[in-house]
Amino acid sequence: MKISASTKAITAGTASALGLILAIYIGSNGLKHFDHALYWYAIGSIAGAFAIGYRFTLWASRPPSRLYFKRGLQLLLRSGPKYEARRKKTLPETELAKATAINFAGQNFIRKRNYYRWIMHLCLSGGCALAFAITFPLVFGWIHFETPLEDAEVYHVMVFGKHVDTFNVHSLKGSLLFNSLNIAGILALIGVVMASVRRMTNAGEKAVQTFYEDILPLILIFCVAITGLALTVSYKYLAGQGYEALVWVHMITVIALILYIPFGKLFHLFQRTASLCVSMYKKAGDNEEQATCLITGEKFASKRHVEDLKIVLDELGFDYRFKDEDGNEVHYQDISPSGRRRLLAVNQGKPLGR
């Protein structure tokens, strides 16, 4: 009995939520280090984990995505006879690490297009990633701080209940740690401002942008960043005025952002994982048997890539097979781009007697 994609997605979402609940319980030492004041943040995160697991499974079940993940896993495990010859020529783990650093974290593919967009994306992704990397472990109780009885100006950093570091509250390290969320907020705000200016002035962006996909995520990130910074201003410079109300507003905006991620444009943060598989796939294809164009006789892509394209097209219900002049069945994917242009010119010339 074949399991439907929606059933798989619900199962994956449930597993993600339950896995996070278990991780919170274990990581906080049986909720001993869980801050109950952050209860709603944890609830929102669990709901977000379900939504991300659900959406990611649906997306990864699509034929192109599924094939890329399958090939990426095969390359990492180097399984199957088709990958034996490649083992001596490439290191998929090295290619994965390189792609992660250059394209996923450094977003080099954007830098090649436009430096303004590259800085904008680095600020947005860097600020959000830093904020999440700090907030989630603190909310889940995975990280907490303890003050020794003999020195109230020293903090012990506890990770999963283990002492990993010590710093003075007046040290540079202490200042950076205490203000890391403010730094993340400022980076995110810079990115939001740059993105907003671009969307208001770039004719191409204005023509295709939509509120839900392009404007709403900027509003949510702006609200999270500005309310987070306002909390710091309130307790540091305004003697706590409006702090209680700001706490609730900030919490609502953070949960709204978490719940938006799986169903909006920000989901591409998870879709970018497929690009890592694509990088390995393309690199490995350079060392594989190459496909030969039926028209030009030139090699134009890896044979594995061409065969995979045929599989995906069949799964999507597209039949690109046709008969040649001799009655032999030919697949359009066996023709290179230059061969297709030549074939088009020939077919257009026939009615003209050329």
Beta fraction of the residues?
5-15%
What strand order characterises the main sheet?
A: 1-2-3
Number of H/I helices: 14
N-to-C terminal Cα separation, in Å?
56 Å
The counted number of beta strands is 7
Classify the secondary structure makeup into a structural class: mainly alpha
Give the overall average pLDDT: 87
Give the biggest sheet: 3 strands, antiparallel
Walk me through the structure:
With 354 residues, the protein is mainly alpha-helical. The chain is built from 14 helices and seven strands. It has helices at residues 5-27, 39-60, 63-77, 92-105, 108-111, 115-140, 172-178, 180-201, 203-208, 211-237, 243-260, 268-285, 303-315, 337-349, and strands spanning 143-146, 154-159, 162-168, 290-292, 299-302, 321-323, 329-331. The protein has a three-stranded antiparallel beta sheet. Strands 4-5 form a two-stranded antiparallel ribbon. Helix 4 packs across helix 12, helix 6 packs antiparallel against helix 8 (180-201) and helix 10 runs antiparallel to helix 11 (243-260). The radius of gyration is 26 Å and the shape is elongated.
